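Try it yourself: sequence plus flavin-adenine dinucleotide, in.
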Amino acid sequence: MEEQPLFSDLSEAERKALEELMPDEMGEIMSSGIKRRHFLKLFAVTGTSLLAANLLGIEQLMARSIPIEEQPPVLIENGINVSFQVNGSTQKLMVDSRMTLLDTLRERLGLTGSKKGCDHGQCGACTVIVDDKRVLSCLTLAATCEDKKVTTIEGLATGNELHPMQTSFIKHDGFQCGYCTPGQICSAVALMGEAKNGDASYVTANVREKKKAVELSNEEIRERMSGNICRCGAYPNIVSAIREVHGDKAVAQVWQFAEGTI
Amino acid sequence: MRPFKYSNASETAAAINAVVVNPTARFLGGGTNLVDLMKEDVMRPSELVNVTRLKFSAVEKKENGLSIGGTATNAVTANHELVRENYPLLSMAILAGASAQIRNMATNAGNLNQRTRCTYFYDVNMPCNKREPGSGCGALHGVNKNHAILGWSEKCVATYPSDMAVALAALNAVVHVEGSDSTKRSIPFSDFHRLPGDHPEIDNTLKHGEFITSIDLPANRLAEKSYYLKIRERSSYAFALVSVAAALETSGNRIKDVRIALGGVAHKPWRARIAEQWLTGKEATEANFKAAALAELKNAKPLEQNKYKVGMAAKAIVRALEGAMQGGNYGAMEADLTTTN
Ligand SMILES: Cc1cc2nc3c(=O)[nH]c(=O)nc-3n(C[C@H](O)[C@H](O)[C@H](O)COP(=O)(O)OP(=O)(O)OC[C@H]3O[C@@H](n4cnc5c(N)ncnc54)[C@H](O)[C@@H]3O)c2cc1C
Ligand code: SF4
Ligand code: FES
Ligand code: FES
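Structure, out:
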């Protein structure tokens, strides 16, 4: 395999910031790669979480788009011209009628944050927000997206400022492998809107009660997030992360690092 | 997935015509069922006509009830104020199905047209009369724990998976469709889906190219006492093993009107007419609910692996009726279950 320069996706400024932060460990990082404790140290020291996340390679959490050269597919049958917004920028492209939104995001637009878990609507890893609603991009044909506004995990942060839901997932350790995380976060962000809107769920005590913004119990959060499966079983922490953002008040972090590990 | 022609319909007559003239064309709603089945190579349309931009997404009052649009999403329908207030049974049933993401995509018309989840149907290497008429039914003597206990035939023992449709059956909904040359017709819900008989490849009585414009819900006095109970292998995001839509109108404790429909037991939503007749005019008591449930399920013919469904369905009917009597209040119902069980 060809050697990749370390942190090739970091900007000059970010690389410099890294060196200033951890001059003594830079050599070790270079030779042994990034370890979780470096990540955490960066976190503790800086709060520049976007940088930290890049370093760790848990890009799942707040995935940024990587610049890729668009590879036009070899053969497009039944090509459809679509124009839609992705994370605020207009995209115009020709897609095969069979192309899903998920494959379009990942393979044509370089937005690999959205994940393909099952490709059949059964796991939620591919969840994105289309016109303010959470949907499954694996069952959405790209051709149906004309004029729509798509938000993916890459579009949630504002510059280097994470979306509160991303910050909360970090604080509450709402993931292990991170594969389901972009879907979980997009889903949770849209859920906040549904709750404000007073939407009901199957466990809502009385669906006939007039709609007003609803406060979500843990049971409600679990039911409403059931479309996002987590193989690692990070559910309790995911619920805590969502509760913190939803409730607008701090929820205690239930984990901490063993002494001497950072 | 096989190649197919695609268009975004902007005009109803043209959309209908496009499907009418091509026997292998299909309407595309949210795509949550059709796209999945196309990926599995179970369905192989040569052309898709996306109908979600046509103007059939309204939920509106009608003279004698409510009309819900064929292309309205399940999520919008379940959360519409008029549906929540007047047809809570429908809201509960829709919200019991799939996930928030899927309900945001799924249309009401697509929901009624979704196909069975029988695993043999999904696996193109297996025999299945529904997918390939004449190839045999893999489930009849195979893995059939999730299959029908009522109304099946030797040709097919599949169940119909929609939750929404179970509520619509109980609510005496009427499906409005439009065909070629703008011909319109209305289909009473009990005539919409069908039993398999000798032709399991036909799920319902819609003709090729007929487009569902709306579904009417007649006015009723059942809103205060209705409940949708769904039993499944995990508590959310799973299809029903058995489900029950129950609704009552009582005067004192006497039953004036009662509706019971079962999901997960047959090739169509199963209206429990025997139980309903048994209960009408009687007192709303647990003993009567039990007797009615047993009367209905006396005719059940379970398969090798799904005998459990008979007892489960009987108990579910009783529980759902009790839930309805408590005002369809999920909280109260759950609290009651945890204290009595
Ligand atoms: C993982 C998963 C879990 C699910 N769990 C549940 C569950 O628990 N309970 C439940 O009830 N459902 C469940 N579903 C099914 C889901 O509800 C259906 O897939 C959905 O309702 C179909 O609607 P759609 O608009 O996406 O249909 P599409 O997939 O677009 O279309 C389905 C069929 O309807 C036809 N059609 C679409 N619109 C019209 C129209 N206007 N007129 C005539 N024909 C039309 C299409 O041609 C196609 O044949 C689940 C689905 C998935 C993927
Ligand atoms: S039960 Fe019906 S759908 Fe399932 S294998 Fe038999 S014929 Fe096919
Ligand atoms: S990849 Fe879309 S739901 Fe699993
Ligand atoms: S964190 Fe691994 S699947 Fe959820």
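One thing you can check immediately is this: Chain B touches chain A through 47 residues (CB under 8 Å).
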